[in-house]
Write a structure and sequence with these properties.
This protein is α/β, with parallel strands linked by helices. Helix content is 38%, strand content 18%. It folds into three domains: 143 residues, Globin-like, CATH 1.10.490; 97 residues, Translation factors (Elongation Factor Tu (Ef-tu), domain 3), CATH 2.40.30; 127 residues, Nucleotide-binding domain of ferredoxin-NADP reductase (FNR) module (Rossmann fold).
């Protein structure tokens, strides 16, 4: 692979930016349509991101546009490259899968842009695609190698049995998973997720990612899953199956822990963990890790839920805070119900705001970890930036592709 792209290639790619701004989504939609004609390639993807919302094509269109805009300054995309590589590892993407994407993408560019897709433009995009692909392939090979070499590590899919199921709220349940081979497991970083492969009757192969909600250990993982939508919708097929069909002893296949959003356990600076809804799952892993390590770092845990019926792991969070005097908890209910008692079940009515966070926590002296629905994140990430919190102190995770999230997308590094 060349050390850099040819200047003529860079100029041609930059020249396509206006076309990508106008037609990028059409290109990525057609690319996936072509790609999914091959069932083996289709099964590599999380189909819930390709349904009515079309979030994955939107995310890819933005990524392609960002690549074109920054083709002469690829260092600006290093965080995105790491995030994509981590996602690919969780999906078990391998080098032999990349040519299929290249063929589908270049054909889609030609179909959508028509005569504007000159041979020179197509050749430049072919070179640019493989330049980025080789970067990803190299990084993914390193991640796979490191995961396999670590104690308890593995590559590919490993079988886990459901050891216990706990209903955390009306819509959320936790599943503790033990390795079928009884060997030690890889200790995850607090905040990471597991990729899962499901082969469900009548549905075929489906892949999902679920955050690990327990502290790192050598013997078990816990995932905490919200029932989404309806059982026949792409976004609800697996979560409904887990809630309705999984039982003690059910076997799940999981890839090793992945993700670039995790707690910096080497720092003792103040941290603020902020979650909305089921976004609490990585925060619970972080809280348990802080308590387990007997950390003395100042910690704020701020959680927002609709009401008490859907507030998961409330007792667990309070117990963790009660065992470490450096942890402070604040809970917001957006729409508290009659049985929700202020000062007992929750602390504030309404939504968490950036103004409140900066006023009630150490502000720009703290590092903020945020996870929740996209509107929740968009409000808080943008709000914290406007309040002057340095970008490097705002780390966030979202469930699903990163489309239309913040004014200037900055993912956890």
């Amino acid at each position: 692979m060349p050390a850099s792209l040819e200047p003529t290639t860079i100029a041609l790619i930059k020249a396509t930016v206006p076309a990508l701004e106008a037609h990028g989504l059409d290109i990525t939609k057609l690319m996936y349509e072509r790609l999914f004609r091959n069932p083996e390639i289709r099964d590599l993807f999380n189909q819930s991101h390709h349904g009515e919302t079309g979030s994955q094509p939107k995310a890819l269109a933005q990524a392609v546009l960002a690549y074109a805009r920054n083709i002469d300054n690829l260092g600006a995309l290093s965080g995105a490259v790491e995030r994509i590589a981590q996602k690919h590892v969780a999906l078990n993407i391998l080098p032999e899968h990349y040519p299929h994407v290249a063929d589908a993408l270049l054909a889609a560019i030609g179909d959508v842009l028509g005569e504007a897709a000159t041979p020179e433009i197509c050749a430049a995009w072919g070179e640019a695609y493989w330049f980025l692909a080789e970067l990803l392939i190299g990084r993914e090979a390193t991640i796979y190698r490191e995961l396999a070499a670590k104690p308890g590590g593995w590559n590919g899919w490993r079988e886990f049995a459901v050891e216990s199921i706990t209903q955390e709220s009306e819509t959320i349940s936790s599943f503790v998973l033990l390795p079928v081979d009884s060997r030690p497991i890889l200790r995850h970083e607090p905040g990471q997720y597991l990729g899962f492969l499901f082969d469900l009757p009548g549905q075929g192969v489906l892949k999902r990612n679920y955050s690990i909600s327990c502290a790192p250990n050598d013997f078990a993982y816990r995932i905490t899953v919200k029932r989404e939508g309806r059982a026949n919708e792409p976004a609800g097929i697996v979560s409904n199956w887990l809630h309705d069909r999984a039982k003690l002893g059910t076997i799940l296949r999981a890839a090793p822990p992945a993700g670039d959003f995790f707690l910096d356990t080497k720092s003792d600076e103040p941290i603020v963990l902020v979650s909305g809804g089921v976004g609490l799952t990585p925060m619970m892993s972080m809280l348990e890790a802080i308590v387990g390590e007997k950390s003395r770092r100042p910690t704020w845990y701020v959680h927002g839920a609709l009401n008490g019926r859907v507030h998961a792991m409330r007792g667990r969070a309070k117990a963790l805070a009660g065992s470490n005097e450096n942890i402070r908890i604040r809970t917001f209910y957006a729409e508290p119900e009659a049985q929700d008692r202020l000062g007992i079940h929750f602390d504030d009515a309404g939504l968490i705001t950036a103004d409140w966070l900066v006023a009630q926590t150490p502000g720009d002296a703290a590092t903020y970890y945020l996870c929740g629905p996209k509107p929740f994140l968009a409000s808080l990430v943008n709000g914290l930036q406007r309040q002057g919190v340095p970008a490097e102190r705002i780390k966030f995770e979202f469930f699903g592709p990163a489309d239309e999230l913040v004014d200037e997308p900055r993912q956890a590094a």
